[in-house]
Amino acid sequence: MQAQADIDSEHQATNVIALYREMEWLQLVIDQVICSYLKQEGHEQHWLDIEPPDLLSGTPYAHIIIDWQLNIFERLALALAMAPSLKPNVLDTFFGLNSQIDRPFTEFGGVSDKAFSGFIPTGQTLNFLISGNDPQWRIYTRAILANQHRLMAEQVTQLLGVDEGVPKWAGIYRLNDEWLHYFMTGERLRPELSASFPAHVLESPLEWRDLVLEHEVMDQIEELHGWLKHGHTLMSEWQLANKVKPGYRAVFFGPPGTGKTLTAALLGKATGREVYRVDLSMVVSKYIGETEKNLSRVFEAASYKEWMLFFDEGDALFGKRSEGSSSNDRHANQLTGYLLQKIEDFPGTVIIATNLKTNMDEAFTRRFQSMVEFTIPGPSERLQLWKNAFNGVCELAPEVDLARIAEQYEVAGGQIINVLRQCALTAIVRNERIVYQNDIITSIRQEFRKENKMLF
Q: AAA+ ATPase domain location, by residue (predicted)?
């Protein structure tokens, strides 16, 4: 164990060395750009003549540069974004004053903060480095700072927002902490649930074999499973891409607890894909335009990966459009149209879950390859769910007749898990692991009360 710790420490030391070599290069570039801009001695040299350091093989930073095929401008942007966190004094040169007006150079961009005495770069700072001496190269800055650029889409770098009326590039340009962590340690952190990325990974401890659905439903799920396994081959080798748009879109509808969320999680697990559940409460904003921005961050990040996007209670965003004429109605309808376009253009898999199919806008449903109805499982499926639930958790008393329970009580899989939890709690309070028939019936009765149903 100690030997492995030593190896990990050596790797991390190499990772840090690679990053500090980038800082040394960035320092040379900054000095040369300012020298050329102010026509100081040596201004004839161009910053592109300064060779970046050789990438250290095997480091996470080198992997990203090579695998993503980042050009010299993108590599410079990455170095600038990480400088305040890694070696802030590299940027001190930007504090120089314009002798003609005795104030900082506006074109350098940047901001300062009471809690941080160093220079914090902005989008304008990046633009100055790239195009301060070559105005036509502004196009490279615009491409790097665009939301769809891979560095921005995958949340590696971020251009923070500014107040209304302030140029967009005046926003702070920064490297996200999870990526600095990756560059230094080699450990990938998943995007955290936040306003800038309103989605989180959907996981399940269960396996594909644990999925219990009625035959008709399972047939449709197997079709989606087949697409996830073979879709790439169909689109590329079979040239299906010439006939249809990329991606797959499905709607899961049915009562709560019937397996919609679990099925999405297990589809991802069975095909080696991460499933990201979009948090609608963080996406929807009262401010016009903000909802679209929040959704764009998710779609743009997912477009570079083989993520599946799962929208639970999807009718909150994908519901029927209003025929009203108020500004709110018009905005809601515009949002629906925007979502239609985003989903149609998304090259991955989107699953929208809703309790009622009738809540969905027909303009959406026509564009989906699959509409899967999750029903309350039948007696045979319920029996299997009961057996799976108690297996390895509790001991069933000889009197327990799961077949009779499955036949008599129409409950969904989610409700069965709730019953299991309550029965296990009841048993452990008795200081035993045995569950009796009455324990199960009592717990079923509690589940029925939630829906104002009576158990006779």
A: 246-378
φ and ψ of 271, to 5 deg: -115, 10
Amino acid identity of residue 208, one-letter, is W
Pair 385, 362 in one domain: no
Residues of the chain with pLDDT under 70: 1-8, 191-196, 280-290, 315-333, 335-336, 358-361, 363-364, 454-456
**Distance of alpha carbon 94 from alpha carbon 111, whole angstroms:** 10
Domain count, the chain: 3
CATH number of the domain to which 203 belongs? 3.40.50.300
Domain co-membership, 133 together with 242: no
Tokens for 17, please give them. 């060395």
Q: Which of 185, 212, 234 is the last residue of a domain?
A: 185
Same domain, 270 and 143: no
Model confidence pLDDT, tens digit, residues 267-302:
999 999 999 998 766 666 655 566 777 777 788 878
Q: Structure tokens of 141?
A: 């800055």
What CA–CA distance (Å, rounded) separates 187 from 14? 14
The CATH number of the domain where 409 resides is what?
1.10.8.60
C-alpha span between 149 and 75 (Å, rounded):
13
Centre a 10 Å sphere on the Cβ of residue 137 and count the other Cβ atoms it contains.
15
DSSP state of 397: P
Specify whether 301 is located in the same domain as 420: no
Q: Which of 363, 360, 348 is nearest to 299 (CA)?
A: 348
Domain that holds residue 63: 2-185
Long-range contacts of the stretch 131-138 (C-beta < 8 A, 24+): 132/33, 132/36, 132/37, 132/107, 133/33, 133/36, 133/37, 133/46, 133/47, 137/73
What gap in Å lies between CA 152 and CA 172, rounded to an integer?
13
Find, among 451, 443, 450, the residue nearest to 394 by Cα: 443
Distance CA 199, CA 299 (A): 10
Please give the Cα distance from 243 to 96 (Å, whole number). Answer: 58
What are the residues facing 111 on neighbouring strands?
A: 120
Rounded to 10 degrees, what is the CA torsion of 42, 65, 24, 89?
110
152 and 211 fall within a common domain? no
CA 56, 57, 63, 65 torsion-angle sign: positive
DSSP per-residue string spanning 403-437: HHHHHH----HHHHHHHHHHHHHHHHHTTS-EE-H
pTM (2 d.p.): 0.72
Dihedral of CA 354/358/360/366: which sign? positive
